[in-house]
């Protein structure tokens, strides 16, 4: 998943970036509203975390700008303790949730993951596509109740496809949302991960959960 963090306090920004990198997120960061606005408008993210009080352009203005431009990815705002006006202003501008500083990293992670799931129409952290079950909180996958061991790249690819089940997802989209800038952007690498997933999830080639869509990419589809 690709995450944008707009936060002017260096310690908090670095803390958030380090924490979410450990959760296998791809991170873009900005230290002020002007730079943050550029990133927010230029790229598509799975979620953005935006501080309200920013130099050059405040967080509320950025959120309004995003929504007016038709950007629909979820936004979580960070606010100062007790400042209820910021909470209301952020939500009315188009934010999806808020968290008060100081905060616990695990609560932030849970809120961010919940917003990502809901943005794709999934309220539960467990995605059931019989016989495949994906627990997005535990990062655990099973087929017919048997655990399937996946590498982090394989899991991230599967989770992204499953969260966008029924949609054709291009190789470019997978690369931009799942892999770091210095990752070898070779379509053959994506094909390797997809091939591994197919073998691990469906060794007998009976359920065929990941279809190749000619000229468009891949589609995850099973009855759920």
Counting copies of identical and different chains, the oligomeric state is single chain
Kindly give the count of domains.
2
The helix/strand class is alpha/beta
Please give the CATH architecture of the largest domain: 3-Layer(aba) Sandwich
Q: What is the helix content?
A: 40-55%
Arithmetic mean pLDDT: 91
What is the chain-wise order of helices and strands?
EHEHEHEHEHEEEEHHHEE
Approximate shape: elongated
Largest β-sheet summary: 5 strands, parallel
Looking across the biggest beta sheet, what order are the strands in? 2-1-3-4-5
Indicate the low-confidence ranges by residue numbers.
none
CATH topology of the largest domain: Rossmann fold
Query: What Rg is obtained from the alpha carbons, in whole angstroms?
Result: 18 Å
What is the number of helical segments per DSSP (H or I, 4+ residues)?
8
| CATH C-level label of the largest domain | Alpha Beta
Instruction: Give the termini separation.
Output: 23 Å
Task: Give the number of DSSP strands.
Answer: 11
CATH-assigned homologous superfamily of the largest domain: Response regulator
Strand content: 15-25%
């Amino acid at each position: 998943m690709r995450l944008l963090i707009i936060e002017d306090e260096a310690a908090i920004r670095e803390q958030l970036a380090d924490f979410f990198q450990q959760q296998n997120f791809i991170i873009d960061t900005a230290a002020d509203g002007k730079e943050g606005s550029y990133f927010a408008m230029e790229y598509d993210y799975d979620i953005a975390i935006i501080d309200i009080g920013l130099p050059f352009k405040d967080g509320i203005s950025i959120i309004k700008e995003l929504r007016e431009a038709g950007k629909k990815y979820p936004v979580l705002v960070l606010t100062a303790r007790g400042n209820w006006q910021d909470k209301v202003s952020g939500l009315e501008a188009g934010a999806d949730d808020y968290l008060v500083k100081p905060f616990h990293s695990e609560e932030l992670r849970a809120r961010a993951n919940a917003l990502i799931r809901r943005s794709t129409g999934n309220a539960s952290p467990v995605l059931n596509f019989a016989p495949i079950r994906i627990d997005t909180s535990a990062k655990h996958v099973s087929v017919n109740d048997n655990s399937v061991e996946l590498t982090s790249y394989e899991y991230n690819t599967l989770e992204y496809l499953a969260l966008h089940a029924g949609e054709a997802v291009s190789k470019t989209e997978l690369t931009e949302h799942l892999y770091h800038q210095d990752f070898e952007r070779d379509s053959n690498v994506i094909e390797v991960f997809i091939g591994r997933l197919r073998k691990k999830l469906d060794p007998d080639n009976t359920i065929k959960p990941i279809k190749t869509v000619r000229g468009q990419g891949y589609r995850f589809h099973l009855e759920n």
